[in-house]
Write a structure and sequence with these properties.
The chain has three helices and eight strands. It is an alpha+beta fold.
Length: 195
């Protein structure tokens, strides 16, 4: 049985249904056609669901997304001695971070000279003005190089504005400070939950 191609056949648009109808009916042909249609439908469904799964949760309105937060910073700080054994550190700087981009930084640390540690707070402001506020603790350790200390600070994100209005997260800063010039630079890493 050959398939006859006439002008009326050529005028019809080629669709899955017309393709199935062109085949000569035989035993089981209709059932196989229905199974093929079901298979194609399942493949489309898998592709659509798979594509949706590849989308980040931020694509969907109201979704929360925890993302890595890491980057680098440079800055300068001034120290004010308060007797008998405290130093108030006020610093500012700038940097670049994942999911924030370029930012400016203001921070304060109250260092107890007997332990080298103390409470810290920081404010990071992105280029568009969105800000988040952090609280934590810092610890300074000597490096063996006179006038150079290593500072490790652990922060929790406690509030914010703009896209960071409901942000939470935590990160750790590791930086060097030149006690003579006040210059500091370092890196940080952690995670941030964007809502």
């Amino acid at each position: 049985m050959g398939l006859q191609l006439g002008s009326s056949w050529m005028a019809r648009p080629l669709t899955l249904e017309s393709y199935v109808q062109c085949k000569p009916p035989g035993p089981g042909r209709r059932r196989r056609s229905q199974m093929n249609i079901k298979r194609i439908a399942v493949i489309y469904l898998v592709l659509i669901v798979g594509f949706g799964a590849l989308q980040t949760p931020a694509v969907f309105a109201g979704a929360s997304q925890e993302v890595p937060f890491k980057g680098s910073l440079v800055g300068n700080e001034t120290d004010t001695f308060t007797p008998p054994n405290l130093i108030q550190v006020n610093g500012f700087g700038s940097g670049n971070a994942t999911h924030v981009g370029l930012f400016t930084l203001d921070y304060q640390v109250l260092v107890d000279l007997t332990t080298g540690s103390g409470p810290a707070s920081a404010q990071l402001t992105s280029a568009n003005g969105d800000t988040f506020f952090c609280e934590g603790n810092g610890q300074a350790t000597e490096t063996g190089v006179p006038g150079l200390v290593m500072v490790t600070e652990s922060y929790a994100i406690v509030s914010g504005t703009g896209r960071f209005a409901d942000a939470t997260g935590q990160f750790t800063v590791v930086r060097q400070v030149n006690l003579i010039t006040g210059d500091t630079s370092g890196e940080f890493s952690g995670s941030i939950m964007l809502h």
